[in-house]
Write a structure and sequence with these properties.
Number of strands: 9
Helix content: 25-40%
Shape: globular
Strand content: 15-25%
Distance between the termini: 19 Å
Largest sheet: 9 strands, mixed
């Protein structure tokens, strides 16, 4: 069945130069208000960002993809200009399952019952859960610079833990990490984005300004809830599914050869535990390939999606 974009009447053109020709919209889901931009024509493609980012992280390649796809680029709940609901006693409101449900509802509201997905970092984990929980919705899945959550947490090395301290710091009970990180929000966001051996070079001034603007106390609390959920409910869900449920659609794995993933894991082998049709390649990048090597990232995604 042919699918057509159904924009809400409240949609407005995106201001600025990062998403030319895109429209901005806000869609209510059962658990959040999701801010997004959408542009282009063709089969629907959902792009999901990571932490500590927002939809802007796709600004270098989304316009290219929009030449062939209807590209939907949301802010995950808790991030960017999306709402930041309470996490609940067990942090379930920030589980990857809850975030995946948001995206299914967003795409349905736009008129799409099935679609392709590319997710970076946390967005890749949302995409993984989306493909497990809603296999009829996801035609293809690409994950950028992650290994599966269950694999990561059961194969922790000294090197990875040293580089990825925030997984365990931000998961500490509230308000401990929130108060420390909130002492100087701009310093934190710049430090967090300046990855080892790469620095802040991949980020344009316009994108960096948006990351700084959206790094608020409310966002920091939501991100901490995200990591608290990862170490509790998300891990429990993955442990229950491990070896029993698989990503049934084709899966592309991209990772930075100079990222913590490339240094400390074997990404293809890790994903073969969770998917039957896995391909992938290392990119000449650190942890943020869509901003550090956009041409190479776009080319890899384009080859995978168009088949």
């Amino acid at each position: 069945m042919t699918q057509y974009l159904q924009l809400p009447d409240s949609a407005q053109p995106v201001e600025g130069s990062m998403f030319p020709g895109f429209q901005r919209a806000r869609i209510s889901t059962s658990g959040a208000e999701i801010n997004l931009v959408v542009g282009g024509e063709g089969p629907p493609l959902l792009l999901l960002h990571g932490n500590p980012l927002m939809h802007v992280s796709w600004h270098k390649i989304a316009p290219w993809l929009a030449e062939e796809y209807t590209v939907v680029v949301p802010d995950l709940r808790g991030y960017g200009d999306s709402s930041k609901p309470e996490g609940g006693g067990n942090h379930a409101a920030y589980s990857f399952r809850a975030m995946a449900e948001d995206q299914v509802e967003v795409m349905a509201a736009l008129g799409f019952s099935h679609f392709e997905v590319a997710g970076h970092d946390r967005g890749g984990r949302v995409g993984h859960r989306l493909a497990l929980d809603y296999p009829d919705c996801v035609d293809k899945l690409a994950v950028l610079d992650i290994v599966p959550t269950h694999h990561l947490l059961t194969n922790i090395s000294k090197g990875w833990a040293t580089e990825s301290y925030h997984w365990f710091f931000m998961a500490q009970p509230a308000p401990f990490p929130e108060r420390l990180l909130g002492a100087d929000l701009e310093y934190y966001i710049r430090y967090k984005l300046a990855k080892k051996g790469v620095g802040l070079g991949p980020f344009t001034e316009e994108a960096m300004a948006e990351y700084i603007r959206c790094c608020t106390p409310e966002n920091i609390h939501a991100v901490c809830e995200d990591y608290r959920a990862t170490l509790t409910i998300d891990f429990e869900l993955d442990a229950a599914d491990y070896g029993k449920r698989f990503v049934e659609c084709p899966l592309l794995v991209l990772w930075g050869e100079n990222s913590h993933v490339g240094r400390h894991f074997s990404p293809l082998e890790a994903w073969q535990e969770w998917a039957r049709d896995v391909t992938g390649v290392a990119l000449a990048s650190g942890h943020y390939p869509a901003e550090q090597c956009p041409e190479e990232t776009y080319a890899a995604l384009h080859r995978f999606l168009r088949v």
